[in-house]
Fold this sequence. Notes:
Chain A is an alpha/beta fold. Chain A has helices at 70-77, 99-105, 121-131, 136-149, 165-177, 195-210, 222-228, 246-252, 271-275, 301-310, 325-333; strands at 4-15, 37-39, 43-55, 59-63, 85-90, 93-94, 106-109, 183-187, 214-219, 231-236, 239-244, 257-263, 280-286, 289-294, 315-321. Chain A is 32% helix and 28% strand. The longest helix of chain A has 16 residues, at 195-210. The relative contact order of chain A is 0.13. Chain B starts with 25 loop residues before the first helix and ends with a helix.
Amino acid sequence: xxAAAIETRALRKVYPAPAAKRGANRQGPPGAxxxxxxxxxxxxxxxxxxxxxISEGEFFGLLGPNGAGKTTTIGILTTRVLATAGSARVSxxxxxxxxxxxxxxxxxxxxxxxxxxxxNAIENLVFHAAYFGIPRSTAEARANQxxxxxxxxxxxxxxxxxxxxxxxxxxxxxxxxxHEPDVLFLDEPTVGLDPQARLDLWAILRDLHEQGRTIVMTxxxxxxxxxxxxxxxxxxxxxxxxxxxxxxxxxRAPGGxxxxxxxxxxxxxxxASVTALPGVLRAEARQNGLRVFSDRGGRxxxxxxxxxxxxxxxxxxxxxxxxxxETLFVSLTxxxxx
Amino acid sequence: xxxVTRDLQSPPEPPGTVPRExxxxxxxxxxxxxxxxxxxxxxxxxxxxxxxxxQPLLFIIVFGALLPRMGFVAAGxxxxxxxxxxxxxxxxxxxxxxxxPMMQDFGWTKEIEDxxxxxxxxxxxxxxxxxxxxxxxxxxxxxxxxxxRLIMGPIPGFSLAHGGEIMLIALLGATAxxxxxxWLGTAISPQQIGLMFSVIVAPMIFFGCAYYPWRGLDAVPVxxxxxxxxxxxxxxxxxxxxxxxxxxxxxxGVVTVALVVLAAAGWALGxxxxxxxxxx
Lengths: 338, 280
């Protein structure tokens, strides 16, 4: 049996309601995501009853929109956020009772690069290693190796402010690896990177995974999760909605193409007649929009518009999405990813 | 199980084995954190010196040299002023050395996060910051002293003979103020930094008995007892007692007890506030 790298049970996190946090600490707790589902008077539930099992050597993705609870989950697993209830173990160690030991097993790449700007690139790595008790000579050798592998060796002595966004992100990966952790956490690692830097980063992550490292990544990019991860957990509003391999998740996507119409008024009264159209699998009205799953692709657009315009409504925009993780996400959560 | 090639680092253990344990002694990590701050401080030495010396220097020039020559203050005033100036250098340096980086780190740069991931209890990271600030504060006071002596000329009754007591007061004062800096830096949001200086720091300096001895406030009893809330009073009075004992001053016992209590309270508040910011 493959050992568990990560195991969470009924993990729950409730942030205090904003009114209860007057005065100090207005910055919000580290890792606090945008508010999830607010419960009156009881705070903001960022994470609710999360059960996760991630095996050693697995490349796991947490996919969800902003505020889904991804960052909170990473925060708890990396000992930076205390869970309100439930339990979490990383490499078999409990994050609540033995945070110090958990930290020896993990490497963390933050959402936004946060290098130590008072130090140059290689000093960032060597000092981080020193915080883990690694002797200087070993640290320097590893740092040089990592900088070379991540293609920023020429920036070793550079101030971190002279590094581009992509280079800083690589430095963060090098930093996360310098103490040779068992599990690598990456929180939205490609946000803000240009397409080429993103592709480069994907290659680096694939490489690290092939070397046998456990990788846990959050993202709100479907394609990223699909291309990189062996299994994906779809989260929204603090809940895990689906968990499977990308291909099986895509099989679960409701059949057909998703067609979305933007209208100038509510189409509530049209749902029945739209559903009756040949080729329509499902239709739902959303404020001033109409969401239709079609098994005839875009060919039903013309009769669809006919129905809408006959009812005196006007179409301001039309969107088409092929069956994908995206359409699964929309059918699970009722909303789009970004 | 897939066969993997590992060219980058030593391999993680094969799945299923007991995870290796890599405990690190907290003192080793503490020293690494301290070394980091020393390296950074060395890089920023000229700025540190200018920041530290500027304000005390201006006061020394105006109050210690110009006013006495104009005849507005008595010649002996320098004996009361010097320990006060040193107290201000010490305490302001201590506060700034912690509070500014904390505000920056927790407020927007998040730079401290690499240290919060170190495998030690979070309080070690906070304690190191306070200790680093204590060292900076002591250096600040030591740097200002020769300038003061040079500009003010001979200071009646001044003596460094009580080195041990001077060190004790300086150390206690620096600890109290570094801890206070930790508390302010983690409890106040960066937007209120201006407010911190005008509402907390400035009154503390002016009502800190730095420019006049506490006994001089006999003339205004309300102020005399209100200022006892101000930690700077004990540092200034303590240094007066051990450096220029001819000037009226509080007893060393009172000063020591007050500073120990303030340092302990500041330490507890600072640690708690740091932990709240570090762990959500």
